[in-house]
Prior knowledge:
Helices cover 24% and strands 25% of the residues. With 437 residues, the protein is of the alpha+beta class.
Amino acid sequence: MRSQEEKRVVIIGAGIIGCAVALQLARRGYRTVNIDKNPDVGYGSTSNSCAIVRFSFSTLDGVMLAFEGLHYWTDWANFLGTSDERGLASFIQCGHLMLKIDDTDRRQVTEFYEKLGIRYEEWDRAKIRERLPIFDMHSYFPPKPVDDPAFFADPIREIAGGVFTPDAGYIGDPQLATHNLRRAVEAAGGIFLLNRRVVGVARHTGRVSGVVLAGDEVLAATVVVNAAGPHSAAVNELAGVHTGMAVKTRALRREVHHLLPPEGFDFERCGVMTSDTDAGVYFRPGVGNKITLGSTDPACDEKTWVADADQFNREITEHQWIAQVYRLAKRIPDLPIPNKASGVVDLYDVSDDWIPIYDRSDLPGFYMAIGTSGHQFKNAGAVGTLMADLIEACEEGQNHDDEPVQHRLRYTGRTLNLGAFSRLRTLNRNSSFSVRG
């Protein structure tokens, strides 16, 4: 076993993933330090997360991990085991409705649900109208740009219905959830260095030896974890590990918009989280009877990749506002469209196949929990645990590249092959190649 002096870990990033990794390592006796350029935890892309907890992934591994992640939120207070002067984040279990374009749509994910014992209900159009009378049942697939003349064409058919998972929901305050993790990390002995920027990754005798901070301060460590979110690719370049990766990450600019529901409908209390690939949007209820609206990445939309995660347009653009809001207005015809756009703009950290990378690297002692933006907030607790298992196995000599770590999930008891999240994998063609994961 490594001595206490040898178990020093630096986690680059203090978002929801970085804090979750720190907690599990600190509880296993590692001396953890989270470094972040922001003034508090959860101030980066985590703060603007839609914080949706759902299980509708395009691979069995993704569904398995997401269902495990649910149990951390339903057991949040016990899992944390400590208090927070700001209070604990709430899990609002409103349920998740996936609209079906046709009768074959969503069949694969329901097969995953049945295999894993995840509760779901098939809703026909009548059931949807009963629960959500503000919805229009027509089909608009495939999604089109607003400037396409066909965008406003009269629909000729209806959607087939939907699949509803009652156990799904969202976290009302993602930044508070991250602060909860910070307090738990500190209770376990971990510390945070905020308003500090990593400018280099140090090596010694062929292994990571720490990180270099702005001002040339070197912080020694035997293990370094890249949980830098949209800055993950830049950190990998600092470490010199990017060339050894078959799957890489890059930053993607995204907009999420806020609107009010039709007058007289309490969407906060009666609405459900909805995935609508037919119209090309997803949306969920929000505090103050708001609708939080995002894009499902329809093929007709161009993506805005960002080379420098510190330099991007943080203003809502008219083009994206109109595209997303008008698409939602097709599903909710009485949607009031305000004159002034409202919402948030931030970056996703996206892998080449939109499946996260939870792995070691070619540099011994340097690990990655990256490619997580858009759909891994829900999995933070589970990711912290799997990363701790992965790090311990590799540090004890297991060759994870040739013999992938088999991780036993804490709550569901299933075994997850962590090779599914390897940096060396071929692109997973079963992925949705979108925020759906």
